Amino acid sequence: MEREKISSHYTFCEVQIEESKIKAFNKDSRTNNSFRVYDGEYAGIQYIQGGNDDEAGFKKAADNLSIKRPYKFTLETGRRSRDKTERDYTDGDVMDIAKQSVEYLTSHYPDFKFSGSINSHKRNITMKNTLGLDYSNTDCQLSISITYKHKDSKDLDDGYFSIGQRDFDFKKFTDMADNHLQGFENLAELPDELIIQQQYYEYLSKLSESLNAEDLALDTSLLTGKVGEKVFADGFTLSHDVSDKETWFTPFFDGEGVVQEGDKRVYIENGVLLSGYADKRTAAKYSQPHTGSAGFNLNDVPYNGYLNLRIARSDKKVRELLDNRLTVVPILAAGGGYNEKGDYVTPVQKAFLCDGERFIGRLPEFAIKGNMFDIFGSGFIGVGSDNPVFNDKQILMKMDYSK
Amino acid sequence: MFNFPKGLYCDIRIEHTDSASYYVQNSEVMQNSETSVAGAMIRVYDGRLWYTSVTNDLQAVQDELDNLASVAQPDDNIENNPVVKMFEVHKDTVLKFEGDNDLRKTTREMREDLVKRCIDACDCDSFDEIKQWGASCSYEHKIKEFYSSKGAEIKQDMQQCFVHMFFDIVIDGITTTGSHAITGFDFDSVKGREDEIVKKRDRFLDYAKNAVDVTPGEYVCVLAPEVTGMFTHESFGHKSEADFMLNDKTLRDEWEMGKKVGSELVSICDSASAYGVTHRGDIAYDDEGTKPKETWLIKNGVLTGRLHDANSAAALGEELTGNARAQDFGFAPMVRMTNTYMLPGDRTPEEIISEVKDGIYIFGVIYGTGQSTFTLKPSCCYRITDGKLDTPVRVNVVNGSVFQTLFDIDAIGNDITFCDTGTCGKNGQAMPVSDAGPTIRVRKLTVN
Fold first, then answer.
1. Do B267 and B315 fall into the same domain?
2. pLDDT of B330-371, one tens digit each?
3. pTM for this structure?
4. Could you say which of A173, B42, B91, B184 would form a disulfide bridge with B190 (CB–CB 3.0 to 4.6 Å)?
5. Of B218, B332, B368, the CB nearest to A335
6. Chain B residues with CB inside 8 Å of A113's CB?
7. Do the domain assignments include residue A145?
């Protein structure tokens, strides 16, 4: 009988801003554990929070073998420790950065009200088993999220920006704030050609759903039958990537202790679909490639779904990709999404016209629409090599307006 | 029980949550778990700042309290602080789920049996079009304790049981996902309702086979009761949460009491004990220890009330309403809805539909959002032609203006229905709420 333990510990320190003033100082510290016992046929699993007695945890896990949760897969081995921490933030550091940020915003932009959060977040996750597996992943980030509202606005808020960094650079924060709040003062008109410039996570939602190897096998994916085919644009390469220094809190191992070579797995290469994602169960059941995609289910056997999708960057900067064209940057866009055909529509309530780096002016409300195959196909312009506007990767793509 | 430091307001919220989940997907058991979680939030207020700490080590609560107190600045006059003065002091125990109805007494076998009955009734494997399906039974039982330095000592419980089934129906390479959720506040109330799931299966089979893409545009829309509930929550409910307007003159002027904000047909209420029946948003006390009140937000189209926590009530000089709620012990309370409903009228749904020459009937909804533009993402819609329901149509999103749409309601049905599956997101917190309403007709909404 083999034993395995996943343990997650995180600490969180936050200064909360309300109506341009510091309202609260919040701290959070929690530990969560998953004890697993394997007898070759079944897994017994017990979730326990907080500090714990390992023997008691493994005993409860062994008792749970009676539930007969099937698990016949070989356990992983290997030793590795990765700590991406660049700076540890004390409570005082977080409070000082909060005071500095509020002072900057209120003194430079008195016509706005600000709310939000300045927080440091540190997370360590370990996975160990009796076959010798010993993995540890640690990361720490300081992030600022600010919602702003003009004093004359009748809306609940007028915009939002956030920045996360391991080693906090105040200049990057003020650059972002200046771009938003100076751009807000100008009114702009929608361009004839709609090029969206935005962080791309929302737009990948249907694609990540469609890449599930189980859905591919059951014919319920929009990508069913397309493995090996060119489905998207030449320049569109999509990977699960936990090597990226701009990726936060993503362990290099999955919920079954599987590590990918180079901490990456390519699913779509130059527009060609290579495979779906599969944990050990899915891979075995549907004879699919095993891609190390098990989620961290602390109270039962793993589920298929550990994904940190990244679109490969172009070697050109955003401005070069645009070649003098203007973009539209949605700031508040919610309520729509993809439908079952892969058609995407969402109302955009707040957006800026942008030259790729600086906001030119705010735009009236509109709705955007497109289809997943067009967004990442004929409409795909690229992901620039630089990070203007968001201090993060951002996609450039052609979409359409909707009524 | 706790040693509260002097010169500070302090409160402690301790929660014990038991939950279980049994989930079968295409005949394979994917989840069979029972989980217990406990934790506490400790808050200290010195009149200038709130200091909070979260822990899932209940032995550490007093230490956490002492640590927070050591960085706060005590104020001998803290009891006269306007916010602190607002806090009510109750000593009460309201445990409604400790008897035979206690969901913690359900066994794995009971959940497995219930799921099996749903699977057998639905018989999804006999439909070639249903390529994937899932059925689950889960529950959550929560006991919350609240202690404050003013003397409050409250213990209350809440529980809910869910049965859920989904079916992925593939027609011409397009997957339509249909689903149905059954909820109740004890185990007996979710048993024997397999026919509801079968009806929903058949509706979505028809929808998947026959739905056509809607032509985007502005339409007269008739909203089914479940949709009206979410519409009420998103189109107006969030604007009734007073924390967005504390010192904002523009918004206070915009949402002044007595202002006409909608058709005189429209009345909206928020109540933590609506209609005398248990609902998902029920609370005996809010997370600041306040006993909730029934709050009429709109009466006959006129703004009559708003929802408060102690901070917003003190800032606006209004009464507490008992709407300070937190997702769980990991979060501080803020102003949230409980059970929000639109009062029914006297029209039948059939009458309301019969008066529409060309429109859209929104049968179900997945989620919504509520800024100045509110949105609804429908699960299933039908075209209305010459007063009758016609072809099913695929609609991605319906939206309208908060400032206009309540004026555009021109018919209200008599068929109020509560939806007890809602979870409302705000500032990173997911809150169990109920919403409700009757069939309504809106003269113009944007449909895409």
1. yes
2. 999 999 999 999 999 999 999 999 999 999 999 999 999 987
3. 0.94
4. B184
5. B368
6. 247-248
7. yes
